[in-house]
Amino acid sequence: MSRARTGNTGLALTPSGPEGARVDVNDRLDALRTAITAARAMPMSTSVVVNRAEMLRLVDELQAAVDEAGAESGRVLAERDRLIAEANAQADQIIKDAHFERDRLVSDTEVFSVARRKGEALVIDAQTEASELRKETDDYVDSSLANFEITLERTLEAVRRGRDRLAGRAALDRLGGDDVDAIRLPEHLEADR
After folding, report:
1. Which intervals carry biased composition (Polar residues) (predicted)?
2. Does residue 88 contact residue 130 with C-beta atoms inside 8 Å?
3. In this prediction, what percent of the chain has a pLDDT beyond 90?
4. In what order do the strands lie in the sheet with 2-7?
5. N or C of the chain: less Cβ packing under 10 Å?
6. CA dist., res. 135 & res. 192, Å (int)
């Protein structure tokens, strides 16, 4: 998987596998919202009738998209660790090269002095570069995880709203729907009525 885009709206992923389809948590949320919005309304109520199989399919797709986003964040962390290890290996090699160069030039005091300064500068440059790469990688991972967190929070809120609506519909179904004014919806849905 490779990151396709991130933004205020969430995390989109583009699979690198043969299916080539886009997995977008927000697309799944939009489909769920559209299905609920387009559902047939119950008379004199804010409750709607939705196709259970369709809702479960959409929730399953949303779960798959969330799982894929979680897997992507794991891959991002693994990539960060790989980049840090690579930067550390490069820094170690630069340090070894600097030590070798210093040892080679030890016989001549002036040349040794120049080599020593150059070696120290190389070490400082390598450490600075490794530190900057580590910070950039950490910032990238933090940004990815923040977007993923926002997406998960929105997903959870959408699922809660969907369950609340289904709970209201179930209350209507139990009462038979004959006398809508006699229906007792859960307290949090009574205000919407």
Report:
1. 1-11
2. yes
3. 21
4. 2-7, 10-14, 23-24
5. C
6. 48
- Token pair of 87 as six digits: 């930067």
What the block records as the tokens of 8 is: 């205020």
Instruction: Report d(CA 115, CA 105) in Å as an integer.
Output: 7
The per-residue pLDDT for range 129-160, each reduced to its tens digit, is 989 989 999 998 898 889 989 998 999 898 99
Beta bridge pairs of residue 23: 13
Distance CA 11, CA 65 (A): 10
Identify residue 163 by its one-letter amino acid code: R
3-state secondary structure of 16: coil
The count of C-alpha atoms lying within 13 angstroms of the C-alpha of 96, restricted to the half-sphere facing its C-beta, is 6
Domain that holds residue 19: 2-190
Q: What is the pLDDT of residues 30-57, one digit of tens each?
A: 888 888 888 888 888 888 888 888 888 8
User: 3-state DSSP call for residue 17?
Assistant: coil
**Side chain identity, residue 50:** V
Task: Let me know if 106 is exposed, middle or buried by CB neighbors in 10 A (0-12, 13-18, 19+).
Answer: exposed
> Residue 73 class from Cβ within 10 Å (0-12 exposed, 13-18 middle, 19+ buried)?
middle
Question: Of the ranges 51-55, 123-127, 158-162, 171-175, which one carries the lowest mean pLDDT score?
Answer: 171-175
- Beta-carbon contacts of 76 under 8 Å, excluding residues fewer than 6 positions away, are 3, 140, 141, 144
- The pLDDT assigned to 185 comes to 58
